[in-house]
């Protein structure tokens, strides 16, 4: 065999090894970009889903807050009503006590009936004027409706029945 070259023959490839390295890194970079884009897309989807969940929770909490505020308002109104009724009852109690304390010795009380919103007095009085001047004025100032009837007795005195009622009850009903 004849040798025409001073070098040994070398196999020549179509793509050099340096080009193969460049192609490998380019493909690797493209895959990394797609993987990052996919991860960001998934992360964005998860964040959007969490935002929707948080909006629903916020709506629920806002609704619950409004309901609790209404409950607080209703409770405060009920409490105010109970306080007003309590003050009214104390005032009625003091007024009735005052009426009973100012009954003169000449008037005889036979019975006192106190109902939920009414007071009934029965007794004997020497004259209509003595009852009206001593007790009736005080009863008129306490109750919305006050009515008295006199019945003459054989000795010249009068038997009376005084019925007094109020719109608001001043004695609480017993609940069984």
UniProtKB/TrEMBL annotation:
It comes from the Bacteria. Keywords: Membrane, Transmembrane, Transmembrane helix. The chain crosses the membrane at residues 21-40. This is Uncharacterized protein.
């Amino acid at each position: 065999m004849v040798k025409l070259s001073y070098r040994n023959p070398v196999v020549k490839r179509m793509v050099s090894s340096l080009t193969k390295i460049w192609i490998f890194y380019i493909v690797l970079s493209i895959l990394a970009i797609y993987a990052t884009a996919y991860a960001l897309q998934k992360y964005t989807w998860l964040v959007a889903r969490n935002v929707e969940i948080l909006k629903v929770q916020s709506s629920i909490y806002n609704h619950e807050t409004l309901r609790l505020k209404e409950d607080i308002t209703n409770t405060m109104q009920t409490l105010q009503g109970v306080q007003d009724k309590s003050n009214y009852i104390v005032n009625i109690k003091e007024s009735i006590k005052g009426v009973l304390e100012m009954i003169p010795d000449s008037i005889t009380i036979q019975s006192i009936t106190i109902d939920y919103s009414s007071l009934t007095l029965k007794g004997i009085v020497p004259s209509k004027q003595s009852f009206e001047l001593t007790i009736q004025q005080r009863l008129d100032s306490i109750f919305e409706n006050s009515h008295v009837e006199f019945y003459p007795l054989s000795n010249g005195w009068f038997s009376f029945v005084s019925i007094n009622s109020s719109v608001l009850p001043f004695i609480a009903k017993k609940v069984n």
